[in-house]
Specification:
By secondary structure, the chain is α+β, with helices and mostly antiparallel strands. The protein has two domains: 175 residues, Trna Endonuclease, Chain: A, domain 1; 99 residues, no CATH class. Helix 6 packs across helix 7.
């Protein structure tokens, strides 16, 4: 399936999860669900009524650093297959880690992928036997490979010796980059939400979806949202974070009226969980 279609389906399901959580709070089911942005440019993504009130929803994926989603696609195509390619071929001296820097793969074209992977495969096989536990090496001038690679060896139980795990380094300024991405989401989405709020008296709802398994969680995302809201005099009435890394999806309430989570001196979170398979793609409403 086209990745854009998959992304829109997930967007529709994320909005459905949020509406179900709102419906639990309001004590009424959503009705008259519409998708204005499919009818005219600049419209919000979902509009519906819950009880007597009109709700307007805007959805966006949040990233821990710029172009993270594209970087994940490139990583999956170029680097991830090396785990299988090198299975059973490395010395059983420990667990090998092969890592690359974030956003370092963008220059690799599709016709180069196989050649790049083969060059990395050969380099790992050549260097792995010389590594001792706790050591790492870096490839600075590997022929045919335009980015740097790190190979490290960790101690591990015998059953895992000789395995390779691939990963990306965390950006050194991850928190600042996350706040920049949240700021952009607010800048992009608030004008449409505020238009519906002022012209239609709608409750404005921002839906943030988090798919980052390694660098993000509800606490760091919530703290970034709280910090960036200070720069927006007309924030959304409600903000929800949909953690869709694994099923069941977890929906966290980050803002409701004046309350913004994480609450001061409290570990309490208002959250609900939903089975992804039971969620409906609301982008098919038009």
């Amino acid at each position: 399936m086209n990745p854009a279609v998959i992304g829109r389906e997930r967007q529709g399901k994320a909005c459905d999860a949020v509406l179900r959580m709102i419906a639990q709070r309001e004590g009424a089911a959503p009705t008259d669900v519409k998708c204005p942005d499919q009818l005219r440019k600049g419209g919000v993504e979902i509009v519906c009524r819950i009880g007597p009130r009109l709700f307007a929803l805007e959805h966006t994926l949040i990233e821990s650093y710029p172009d993270q989603m594209l970087d994940s696609v490139n990583f999956g195509k170029i680097i991830a297959p090396l785990e299988k390619m090198l299975e059973g071929r490395l010395p059983k001296t420990g667990w090998f880690w092969l890592t690359v820097e974030p956003n370092s793969l963008q220059a690799v074209r599709n016709h180069q992928i196989e050649q790049v992977r083969e060059a990395i495969e050969s380099w790992v096989l050549e260097r792995a036997s010389a590594l001792k536990v706790g050591q790492w090496i870096r490839s600075d001038d590997l022929t045919g490979v335009s980015f740097r690679i790190w190979l490290a060896l960790d101690s591990t139980p015998l059953d895992y010796c000789g395995r390779l795990k691939v990963a990306r380094h965390a950006p050194g300024d991850a928190e600042q980059l996350r706040r920049q991405r949240i700021n952009k989401a607010l800048s992009d989405k608030l004008p449409k939400l505020n238009l519906w709020k002022t012209e239609n008296n709608a409750v404005s709802v921002l839906v943030l979806e988090d798919t980052d398994q390694s660098l993000s969680n509800c606490v760091v995302a919530g703290e970034a949202v709280k910090a960036e809201l200070a720069f927006f005099p007309m924030p959304p009435d409600q903000i929800y974070l949909v953690d869709s890394k694994a099923s069941p999806w977890t929906v966290y309430l980050l803002k409701h009226g004046p309350l913004v989570w994480p609450l001061e001196n409290s570990r309490h979170w208002d959250l609900s969980r939903f089975d992804e398979e039971k969620l409906v793609d609301l982008t098919r409403c038009a």
